[in-house]
Amino acid sequence: MMGVKTLLLALLLAALEGAGSMPGSLTDVIRTDVSLRGVVLAAAGRFNDQSNDAFLFKPSAILRAQRQVVKGLRYVVDLEISRTLCRKRNHNKDLSRCDLQPEGSLKQTFECHTEVWVALEE
């Protein structure tokens, strides 16, 4: 009888390990995830909207990214955003067309922590 209990316990532990994380817990997101890219661009857009800087900033590195499924998706992201060559007054919101500032006095990078909630469509 003890052998059966041990076998069941071993199978349960193996199943839990293979299942990954618990429902509702934070899980790592790969940096190439399409949804993550949208979240990071939205965070940079919000930073630009609230910044008084003359130049736009765009994501330059994703340091850590996690996602949690809870009545939608909650992204927790640590990233770097860097000043670009694009000026805000030109109203260029397409950050993919903005190169980063070269080395020099105008180059600036911030480490940011952001949490973004995304509602799931029903």
Automatic annotation (TrEMBL):
Signal peptide interval: 1-21
Membrane-crossing segments per the record: none
Matching CDD domains: CY
Domain Cystatin, residue spans: 21-122
Gene3D superfamilies: 3.10.450.10
Single GO MF annotation: cysteine-type endopeptidase inhibitor activity
GO BP annotations, alphabetical order: immune response; negative regulation of microglial cell activation; positive regulation of myelination
Pfam families membership: Cystatin (PF00031)
InterPro entries in the record: Cystatin-F, Cystatin_dom, Cystatin_sf
Cellular-component GO terms for this entry: endoplasmic reticulum; extracellular space; Golgi apparatus; late endosome; lysosome
Keywords per UniProt: Disulfide bond, Signal
Annotated SMART domains: CY (SM00043)
SUPFAM superfamilies hit by this protein: Cystatin/monellin
Protein family per UniProt: Belongs to the cystatin family.
Name recorded for this polypeptide: Cystatin-F
Species this protein is from: Dissostichus eleginoides (Patagonian toothfish)
